[in-house]
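BACKBONE STRUCTURE TOKENS:
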Amino acid sequence: MKNLVLVMFVLTFALTVTGQTRTKGVLLEDLTWVEAEKILNSDTVVVIPLGAAAKEHGPHLKLKNDWLIAEYLKKQVLAQSNVVVAPTINYHFYPAFVEYPGSTTLRLETARDLIVDICKSFAAGHADLLFSWSELGLAPAAPFSLLNPLTAFPGP
């Protein structure tokens, strides 16, 4: 069986896009399923960025601040690492912010299930999947506390 390592980052590491930039990594969303099938193998690292697209950060910043940072950092990772970067997850568990107009949150179980289902999808037809994560905030970490810190998702 193959191993696919999925590294979960609330804020992924990043690259400044100035001029013409060569990337080592690949955006999953830019591939066809046939192309994805060829590169998702036992040596592939898949990064799933997480950044809220609708969460307050005070009166001076846009609600999409976390999403913008995740997108910026995603470009850094693409430029510096031979990884496959999945689309940014832009909704998650942020209950402390719902009192602010425009801020959104998922239920704890929904946020957890979202991550689990994404991981199972990667594992389903491609490989064994090892899921680990790093977290910068407390609220987004809560759904992961419902999982073991290291959860294996068996492939075919």
About this structure: DSSP finds four helices and six strands in the chain. Residues 1-20, 127-135 have pLDDT under 50 and may be disordered. The first strand starts at residue 3 and ends at 9.
